[in-house]
Amino acid sequence: TGLAAQCGFALDDMTRDDGWRMLLLGRGVERLQCFGDLLAFALRQPRVEEPGLLAVVLELANCTITYRMRYHSLPQLLPVLDLVACDVANPHSLRHQAEHLAAQVAKLPLDGALSIGQTMGALLATLPDDLLHPLEDGGASTSTREALSERFVACAELGRSLSDRFSMRYFSHVDDLGLSTQSA
Questions:
Q1: CA-based torsion, 115, 106, 163, 36: positive or negative
Q2: Could you say which DSSP state residue 137 is in?
Q3: Is the pTM higher than 0.85?
Q4: Which position has the higher pLDDT, 117 or 106?
């Protein structure tokens, strides 16, 4: 209850400055990592198309109600992946998180931190509009699922890379020469 209240205060009462933006960036990066790893793990399971496993994926991604409202059926692989990975209108999807991160990064004072922008470009490239095309028309072979799983792992890794780059750029206590900026 306390964490939910704190989240509400942060979203409703915090000034929309760079600190607030960093809070949102951190949440987005964590979701990228979590959902990328979750989808990769699920796709590597031999019974990935079972509704029970897909229901767990929907629950962990906080998409169960949206799925039920939209599809009126037991969870199926392609609609679950579409909702959790590709649906830009779903605020919990990987694509939404990546696009939101890109928009927030563009507003940060980068001061020449080109590597963050490059990582954002690579992240968006891992989630193209036709990401699920190989699974359409019943093409859910093991090799296709494995290739898609690797894309989700890459998405999670790019999230980790973004986290490291944000930390080094905005939270490191050294200047460009590698000397501490804090006086002893």
A1: negative
A2: G
A3: no
A4: 106
